[in-house]
Amino acid sequence: MEGRWNLLKALMVWELLWLPWSCLCQRRQQLPVLWIMPLSSEPAWGNVTAEVMPAVQLALQHLGKQPAPLCNYELQFHFADSKCDNAKALKAFFEAIFYGPKHLMVFGGLCSSVTSIIAQSLKAWNLPQLSFAATSPALANKRRYPNLFRIVPSNSAVNPALVKFLSHYGWRRVGTLTQLEERFTEVQKNLAEHLKQAGVELVEAQWFSGDPCAAIKTLKENDVRIVIGQFDEFSAAKVFCCVYRLDMFGLKYQWILSGWSETSWWTHTGTSSCSAQSVLSAMEGAVSVDFETLSSQHIRGVSGRTPQEYKQEYDKRCMLKGLGSSKFHGFAYDGTWVVAKALTRVMETLKYREKYSIHRNFTVTEREMTNMILQAMSDTKFFGVTGQVMFHNGERVATIKFAQFQAGREVQVGEYSNITDRLEFPGPIWFKGHERTRDHTHVYPQRMEISMVLYSILASISVLGILTTIAFLFFNIQNRNHRVAQMSSPSLNTLLILGTLLSYSFIFLFGLDGSYVSEGVFDALCAIRIWLISIGHSTAFGAMLAKMWRLHVIYKSISFRERNIKNYMLIGIVCSLLLVDMCLLISLQVLDPLRGTVEEFSLEFDPHGRDFAIRPFLEHCENIHMNIWMTIMYLYKTLLVLLSCVLAWKTHHSNTLTLSHSGCTRISVCIAGPLSVIGAILALLTRHQPNVQFCIVGIVIITCCSITLSLVFVPEIILMSTDPEGASLSKQFHSAEREKESERVSEKESTKQTDSSASSSMTLISTVLLDLLQSDNKHLTMCISELDIELEELIRQLRELSTLSYTNMVNMQDSGEQTDIVTPGSYHYHCKEIQIGIEKCQTLPVGCSGCKDTEDINSPEHVQRRLSLQLPILHHAYLPSIGGVDASCSTPSSPSTQQIAIMDLWH
Fold first, then answer.
1. What is the mean pLDDT of residues 175-180?
2. Does the model's pTM come out above 0.70?
3. 3-state secondary structure 527-561
């Protein structure tokens, strides 16, 4: 094989050297040009030099047939083998410069690194260079490479065409898949700049060096539908094998392959695990974009031939020599013409100067010669086999073609001209589904809102609850002076009602979101919601806490002073809790107010495979430090509920069914407290499920408020309906006191039973004494009860007699006929009855001396004086602290002094 390549090199040198000598008879001026190219085959490029040699030979042949002045000059190429190695290329370059002849230009350059290092040194040697195969975007930097021209477009020349193509189809969202090689990474960076300038979003940029499947999977996860691939034909099979496995082709995806147009690359599937048919299925419909290597226009160019005619001659020469076809052969042909035209122009200019210019006696320097050649190339413009040849800032202004893989073959579908900045489509682009591919999944935003049916149900129940609460409020206000209502503390009941009203109102506002109100109103609702629920909870539970605290104090205290709890103390407890709430809420509103925020969730794709998805979003109230504020608020509310439950538990053994209906209040605290805490926790856990959260919050609030109001007011209503005057309260109060005293005795007995055996005898003696004292107490209590009955009967008779006697005396004084009104018999009878009352009451002297004394004793003043002395004695006899009993024979219609004392105790 090596001998074959050496023979081929010798033949190429002989042909290039023989052509000038064959035309000596024409006396053509030789123009030496240094050709730097790798003469050996490269893995990535192949043997480009051998494949473009027929094109250069055709160009020299065609140039020789041109009219003057082109036919007066002959290009003489001298080879320097770069071997795509920087050191060897520099060595070959220096040897060519040293051994001569003096070259006018440098032609060629394939490998980017070699071309770069040679081009940087050209300025010092005053040599221009024209490359027909170096496509690296980095070589476009004129500050580093001022003497370098390229007739082949840069790889980045396709980027403006790509952006134009994307804009034509309205694709504003793309991704890139780039192979980790310099020639591809530089193009990708340049493409990113063009996309940014055009307003196209680069969603995801992925690179790969080995297996591309991970990068492709990332593109799919980010919903990249338009993928621009930048890799060589050897990696293409791996890429589309992964595309096939990940099902990232077809109707939903469009692949665009940038920067290469190799044919039949899909047949090289040796490095992939997929068959050629699988790769073809994955790449069906993919679009390749690359600069045009051969013009498709049937126009006769500068050589007098069309590009198609040139292609036939080139293929014929390659076939005779057994060579393949290179994508750079057309640029080598047109490059030869550019060099010939530029040098011819410079030579003709120098001849004209020597003959006619006033500067004919001045020698042209090498720098001047170089500048003249550079300027001549910049002004070069003609139609070649690769299209219109012209330069802009040393770069070829080229035509970009678009081709699509259709049924296993490439079909040209579009063309972009950098000169006119126009994109034309000579052939239709085929899309699966008969409509263009979308650049992203069409996402329909869907608000996660509360069901109207659920909102209507809970709102209706809340309305009923509010109406019932208002009815309880009127009932509480109307009966606030009733004995039963006063013992239940009407002020605390009013606060409890207000708290439940605020809680019920919270349900209406909690169910409103952006579908019912505007953004500004929703922000205001966020603040109103937390104020309503916080103040409502503190007011309601604060009232029940005050009730539990009062009950706890009463049943744990002995003295009357400790039991005498004023109403303002209870209201003060609720106000203190509300003050804490106000401080927290004002701080929240000023420092970190709640605002309506939108939280988006992951896409939900259509289960039937249609090209759209749903993105749920939820509107809720949030601030910057939401977790901190919620923690503080929940801890405070939990402590309030916990304290209420603890006080309710401590008084659970007391029989308090009648006094303030504390038993019902205790039950409501034990139910509503834990239920509210559980509801708050569940509301936090279901914050991303608005229907579930609203249902839980609504049910918890309605349940807590309904149970609390029912257990507080329903027993009052029942008691007032069965006992409108509350006459049985005194009897039930004393029963509760006796039960309490019995419990204390039982506690003492149980305590005594747990003492040591040494004190058992003393305990027995004390128990016997206690039993004796209790029996005496019961006997005395019965005696007191009998005396009470007799005493009240005597008081009633005294009042009747005193009223009758007083009336008769007044009548006698007015008429002067005492004997006609009161007879002696009746008078003595009344005196006898009065004497019996005097003996029993022991408040009058023994005997009755006359009617005059009887009149003085039974006068209203004397009766009132006796009552003022006797009733306080009776009052002290009924105090529970000294073992008194209630007056069961007292008149139910009028409150007794004992009952008045009980009411004073509670208020």
1. 94
2. no
3. HHHHHHHHHHHHHHHHHHHHHHHHHHHHHHCCCHH
